[in-house]
Amino acid sequence: MEAASFTPGSVRPGGRTAKVRTAVLEATRAALVEAGFHGLNLDRVAAHAGVGKTTVYRRWGSAAGLVADLLRDMAEQSVPAADTGSLEGDLLANARLVRETLTDPRMGPVFQAVIAAAACDEECASALNGFYATRIREWAPCVERAAGRGEVPAGTDAAEVIRSVSAPLYYRFAVSREALAEADAVRAAAVAVSAARSGLFTRN
Amino acid sequence: MEAASFTPGSVRPGGRTAKVRTAVLEATRAALVEAGFHGLNLDRVAAHAGVGKTTVYRRWGSAAGLVADLLRDMAEQSVPAADTGSLEGDLLANARLVRETLTDPRMGPVFQAVIAAAACDEECASALNGFYATRIREWAPCVERAAGRGEVPAGTDAAEVIRSVSAPLYYRFAVSREALAEADAVRAAAVAVSAARSGLFTRN
């Protein structure tokens, strides 16, 4: 895309492409929630999106290609990391965000479906791994700032701290299939902060 | 089954039933790993198990019924909880067991498949929840003994401590799709012990 294409008021090349992508990913999300990865059919996604089949086949190629792009879009759209001034505040914001997302009536089923897709298909697994890698990169600076403030030891593995906030929430959501309460988010953040302060996440 | 049926050397009533169950669950496990929950077909399971279709339909009823019974069998067969004399030793044994199971070439794919099945089907979700409830009941006494020894505060939620050991390992395995190393098991146990000692798992 050329710089000139962003002149205000002009029709951006890419504007149509972006609209097609939005429609296709919305249809993908709906189909995944409705019928799961095995029910994800490119012809039906194209029809629901109001987009030509050829476009969908050419641009996304396969059901796994659709899921991978949906996850890329979810990573791009997701909420920026908090900066509350303390590790405790930041990780609590993170835990609450994870809990709100997973219990959201629209997003919860999407996460169920992409986790299931990742269990069935290696390309989806790799895309899901990429989604969480992006989220970890987004939130890692909270831990780095805390190390700078002396809240946690130097050499604390920021990624591991962020993972440890998510883990108990995802465990209940996707593995043991238990309810996910506000208290679980509060506990997840508290345990991560306490373990980080104690140096249990420092790199070996 | 009557007590007399267990006379050594006698043919146990139930012996045939137990053999049929073993064969059917083994075929279920293989089919799940091979083709996932959506590829689980009662006729093919019956054929692979060398058991009549009618038996499989009458006794298990559906693909979800097969998965639920497989999970019951996995819970029954699983390794008893450790009793090493310290919470640290017991939770480390637990973390290592979880890691070994999930990275086992035979069992890892079974866990992937049942987690995916649970994401697609409510009966499977309820069976998976039951599997982890059984495992938590099996391991909770480690925490209760630790409370008795004064290692952790009275009122510590034993189930929550056991969940917290599993959570980071399952998060990598089923959600973020990252490698699962021995160091992850060691860290999971250390974080759970530290948080339990600090009273972060006491009931409100």
From TrEMBL, chains A, B:
SUPFAM superfamilies from the UniProt entry: Homeodomain-like, Tetracyclin repressor-like, C-terminal domain
In Pfam terms, one family for this protein is TetR_N
* Molecular-function annotations in GO: DNA-binding transcription factor activity; transcription cis-regulatory region binding
Q: Which PROSITE patterns match?
A: HTH_TETR_2 (PS50977)
Origin organism is Streptomyces agglomeratus
Provide this UniProt record's keywords sorted from A to Z: DNA-binding, Transcription, Transcription regulation
- In its keyword annotation, does this UniProt entry include Transcription? yes
Question: Where does the HTH tetR-type domain start and stop, copy by copy?
Answer: 18-78
Q: Which InterPro entries match?
A: Homeodomain-like_sf, HTH-type_TetR-like_transc_reg, HTH_TetR, Tet_transcr_reg_TetR-rel_C_sf, TetR_C
Keyword Secreted applies: no
Gene3D superfamilies in the record = Homeodomain-like, Tetracycline Repressor, domain 2
* Protein name from the UniProt record: TetR family transcriptional regulator
**Signal peptide: which range, if any?**
none
- Tell me the DNA-binding residue spans: 41-60
